[in-house]
Amino acid sequence: MATKLRDQMTPKERVLAWEEGRPIDRVPSKFSYSPALLKFEGVDTKRYGTDNAYKIATEVKIYEKYRTEELAAGFSVPGLYGATYANPEGGHAYILETVPLEGDDLKHPVITDPKTDPRLAPFWEYLDGILEALGDKVPLRVMMEGPITQAGRTIGVEKLLKKTLRDPEYVHAVLEHILQTQLTLISALEGYDIGFQIMDPVSSGDVLSPENYRAFAKPYLTRLFTEMTRIAGKKPYLHICGHTEKVLHDIVETGPAAFSVDNALDLAEVKREIGDKVTVIGNVHPTATMLLGTPEDVDADLKKCFQKAWDSPKGYIPGYGCGLPVPTPKENVDAVYDALWKYGRWPLNPENFS
């Protein structure tokens, strides 16, 4: 891959210099980890999900070949409550069975000491191992879903949404319990060289009205972000799927450093609305461009993103509009990195993408 030969900085050097306003080789990006990369390298995904030594060795191999710009580790909050997952070969895990979470379930914590709880032993083993292997070269973000999305995964999204109408007190009780679990988990990360990123699809305008976002999502996410910022020493990144036009300013008020924009939104509009308050990330189309398009389509899409957002006051970071589909052709992933150097060489020059 050409990017490996062109890079003059490690991903960690680049992002730290970018955050501090120092010179860099090219703009950082959020074109990072995806099961698609595992597919390209013929990785045994079942073993990858259960064998930390194999997973760490795989991440090192992928970094050396693709110059991964970000590492990820995450907690399964619904799993702590008893929800079960399906892990399809080569695909994304999904909730197989939710839990009721009623009555006494909401009176007692599901975890008290994250460092000694045996359910979390694999997480700590991986976190320590991957930081030792690549932590000096690649920034690591602990990934977690927002409280309302975690609640939906735990009790079921349909039940959650119905309860917002029929029993809002119950929803608030569930959200408070989920939030306290998340706060307990992240408290054990104090002192680690990490950042945080939240994915919050249930906060989407395609799921929640603006009124329900402000009532059920925003307050709990704000409290989570406050504590994440204290622990990491920097604000988290946030991605919300789908339409968020009606709550963009509410999103800013929750406290993220950067907002990752779904491909359903116009980057130029997001820049106008909130670009003076948060870094804007996005939003190459993951299906129309990456999965179904050609390398030429990838180049054109990323060029358009730069045209719209390169001068965003708080900065612009190119990335996908949402998760990259597993069957994405390798030549399209390669085209992303070629286009990054074509349009993202620092300092940014609008003549390169006019």
Question: Can you offer a commentary on this structure?
Answer:
Strands 1-4-5-6-7-8-9 form a 7-stranded parallel sheet. It has a two-stranded antiparallel ribbon with strand order 2-3. It has a single domain (2-352), classed as TIM Barrel, CATH 3.20.20.210. 49% of the residues lie in helices and 11% in strands. The chain is globular, with a radius of gyration of 20 Å. It is of the alpha/beta class. It contains 16 helices and 9 strands. The longest helix is centred in the middle third of the chain and has 23 residues, at 210-232. The mean pLDDT is 94. Helix 11 (210-232) links the parallel strand 5 (195-199) and strand 6 (237-239). It has helices spanning 2-6, 11-20, 35-40, 45-50, 52-66, 77-81, 121-134, 147-155, 157-166, 168-187, 210-232, 248-254, 267-274, 286-291, 295-309, 330-344; strands at 71-74, 84-86, 94-97, 140-145, 195-199, 237-239, 258-260, 279-284, 316-320.
